[in-house]
User: Fold this.
Amino acid sequence: MGKNYIDIENDRGETLRYRKHVNGRGLVAHGAKVHPSAVVELGAYVEPGVHIAAGAHVGRGVWVESDADIGTNAEIAPHAHIGAGAAIGASAKIGIRTHVGNGARVATGSLIGDDETIADGERVATDRRGLRLAA
Assistant:
């Protein structure tokens, strides 16, 4: 039986240890908290300080930067990027290759389409069809 973690050196020369999440085999850094019922697919990276709630699904190739918060039953589609300190509300859906900026907030139940960009610090709320609501 092989080891259940890997060590990766970051840009500052520090070595970070990532463990393979039991649901999906994605890589979760030491210091991140991922609920056992959440799925982190193979090829996804979850950085230190991240919190992923129950029932959330993080797709292949997703990068969740430090201190981000992914709500209950949220769905992050493949190859999305969730910036540092961003928050994705419960049951929100983030599209393929979508970039959510640092400190951005996506409201509960929002639908963010494919290939969209949410700016750093931006607050977004949509209806079930993905139409943005007034702030």
Notes: The CA atoms of residues 62 and 79 lie 5 Å apart. The radius of gyration is 14 Å. Residues 5-124 form a domain with the UDP N-Acetylglucosamine Acyltransferase; domain 1 fold (CATH 2.160.10.10). The chain has no helices and 19 strands.
